[in-house]
Amino acid sequence: MTTPTLEEVTNALKNAHAAGDTAAAQKLAIVAQQIQGNPVDVISFDSKEREMEDFSAIERFKYEFATEESFAENAGIYLEAISPFGNIDLFGTAGKGLYASPTELYGQDFMELNIDERRQRIQQVRQEKQKEVYPELTRLEEEGEGTGAAGFVGAVGKAILDPTTLLPAGKSLPAMAAMSGLVTGSYEAARGLAEEGEIDPLMTGAYTVGGAVIAPVLAKTISSIAPAFNKMQSKIGRKRTVKEAEEAEIMVSQINSKMMELKEEGIPDEGLLLAASQRLQLNGDKMQDAIAKSSVKLDIPWNQDVNKVVLETAESLSGSGVKNGMASQIASTTIRKIRQFSPAIAQRIQKYEMDSSVLTAEYKKNVAPFVSLFSKLPNEVKTEFTKRLMNGQYPSAAQLAKDSGIDSFQVNGLFEKKVVSNVDDAMKGLADTLNKLHNYTQDGVKGGVPFVSNYFPRVVTKYQELINALGIKEDALFNTQLKQKAKALDITVDELTEGQRIDVLNSMFSGSGKYLPSGPSFTKKRVIDEVNDDLMEYYSGDAASNILKYIDRTVNHVEKHKLFTQNGVLKNADFDINLRSSIGGLVEKLQKEGNFKGSVSELTDILEVRFGAGELSPDQFFQSLRNITSTVLLGNPGSALIQLGDQFVNIYRYGGDGGRAIIENVLGKSVANVDDFGLKNFVSTDIKTGREAAGFLQNKISPKIPSTRQVQTQFFKYSGFSAVDRFGKNTLLQAAFNKGTRLAKSDSGIKELRKKYGEGFGEGFDSFVSDLNAGKVSEDVKLYLWSELSGSQPISKSDMPQQYLKMKNGRMLYQLKSFAIKQIQLLNDTVVDEARKGNFAEAGKNALAYTVIVGGGNAAVQELRNAGKGRNFDIKRIPENVGNYLLSTALSSKYALDNFMDGNFSEGLTSMTKPPFMVVADAIDDAYDVVSSVFEGESVNPKDLRRIPLFGDFYYNMFGGGAEEFLEKERKERVRR
Length: 977
Known about the structure:
The chain has 977 residues and is mostly helical. Among the domains are: 1-48, no CATH class; 57-235, no CATH class; 240-318, no CATH class; 460-539, no CATH class; 614-836, no CATH class. It is 64% helix and 2% strand. The chain contains 48 helices and six strands. The protein has a two-stranded antiparallel sheet. A two-stranded antiparallel sheet has the order 3-4. Helix 10 (173-195) packs antiparallel against helix 11, helix 19 (343-366) packs antiparallel against helix 27 (543-565) and helix 20 packs across helix 23. The longest helix is centred in the last third of the chain and has 29 residues, at 840-868. The termini are far apart.
């Protein structure tokens, strides 16, 4: 028999493609491959439209899951048609900002349409978006093609995961039956309204009755997915065809053949499947699909579990199993997600966070006497004092302070012991710090600093008014420098933020000429030698706030610059950082070094959020609201007692090393403390104490009003909250040091350290272990301690979720949830991840230990709180307290669960999602009742005093009937059970 030529086989292959005969094409491709000795693209559908069988089961599942409309979505469509509201998008996922109006979403004529026309328009827009995301699958569905069993599972899954389906059905059989009927009937009614504009009474009644009469628990699940089944049953039709089976067998045979060839080339056994799939240009989905459908066995020539090998290979072909879905963005910490992509870059970012914190605290400590001096000045001279500093008139500013009657004074804030300073020393400390900052910036950035030495920051508060007052709105010199700034950042002038424009303005008037292009026409610099009284209207007159902000910004910028330059990304060092290209370059470099897994674009997006939107501060109003909320909820001894629960987390993580750390901390024998890490005035990322910039109330009402952070600081101090929090952090640092030094002394311990920190430290790991073994608190050991503290407590922006970072004013929604998020991360690391690895015994042991140690410990602390409120110490409450703690860790509560069980879904959801800052409204309401009672001559209700920080809750429980009310409610609950 004559062997066909390559040309003959190639022509036949083209004809098979043209005819759509995929099976023949694959057979011919194998022949061509054998003749040529090179890989051939086995399956190519470029010459024809894709068919449903070309899509993997996972793709079809995702399509139906995404496009199937739930009860909530159907109800939302009809409600939007009746009363258009638009879209509040707190997370910015739609790309239309925080709020999009109905006309922005559905067209300019939307409000002029009637209800039915609006409903149709909304459906049309949704369908157009569906086509954009799934063009081919939507086309095939419109042509009558079914997505098969995988698609059916996706649609059913969407129905099951609808919030209404997941809600508990009630405690009694009648309640369960009624709820089942309500869910199914409501679904059908909502579907009818959304899709036809009316309710079909017969179908809705049928679903309602059907849901109510079937066995309660089963009825709820089955009847809720019935609408999805009715929609999907016509799509199941297609069974696996003979052609599909043939194609799968051909492909698996090819994979086996290619693995044999590669083994001859010397490819290691564990890499054969991956290499073969890549050589054959197969993606993960196609490989898995073929193996699943083929009757030919995969010939893996090594002794490993086949399923595990296939899964790992599919993940490698698809980029990685690391994904960054919305759930991760909302609840997973940013640093944990980065670590999944690259432990190396996570370690470098942790160093950036630590160095920034340490240096910022050090510089602020140096200017603490100056900040205290400014607070002692009479309010009427503070603006003049600030103006003189801005003009470089330091002796004149010092004299103004002395003329105001200030000589020596006590320094507040950053010192354990009382420190006394005077005007001259405070001013000298300020000047020295400004010069150190300038030198630090020059060294870190290596040139191009936009400020001169000894520069006191000029903080512009009214940018547009200032440039108008200076007459430079159309100034050619100013516009030229704006272009230079934009060029350095690789953006357009229109994309410059107000803050970036202010940088140019300050640079221009400080005399640095940083943004002046070279050339004879630009040798003349424009300088404001003196800011006069008229111009001060446009600048901040709070010198203390200005210097603190300046320290924050400078250190943040220089350390960010180091992060990128030290990793070889920024080749030409300059003050301005092109964030987008710097991050992209860093990720690309890590990928080339092999220190990376996953999607390049996804990790780039995460880093851009951290160093972009994450750098923005909330508006002043929201900062003040946050501080007031924390004061009301945490500024009391009861909340301080809750902080003792941190010790049980430490014991869970470090065992005996954690218990020993408590004793060492009490005896003052800790080797490190929060001061070493710049965390003295730091409770968590969203709770800081100490001095701050002028508060919202100060700026809007009167400078005489203390800032909300100052008020919060005092209540935290006198309630004991700050002291207990500090004790907890110090104990954790010592526990981590104890464990680290112990592990560093044995081979098995070093292996455990390497597993967690080997990739992060890289070549420096052996040096790190050597330092631990010697008990030396080196920079590497400090970074280890910082990372361990970060594992339990949110101490930097990287310890918060991406959605927190994205929405600067929406961060209020996360307030007081950061600790729970960290507990979720801890459980993910110690329980969920272990289970994913197949270490079920370890996962179970950790879950039990967390419940007993952390849950039980916090339950005991809760009973101590109850005793302190006069509610008695009742050991019978301990199990319930454990449950309450675990529910709070899951961002829920017993109150919410009880409402769900009783069918009060709206009340339950409201209690779970109610933002903490609503307590401020409640406190204002209480204050109004108190004032009203006083003016009307009536006795004050003690319950209205319970939200007063420090003593209100204690007074209400001990003397206002609160304890009695609690005990009576508890007695009734026990009787009811």
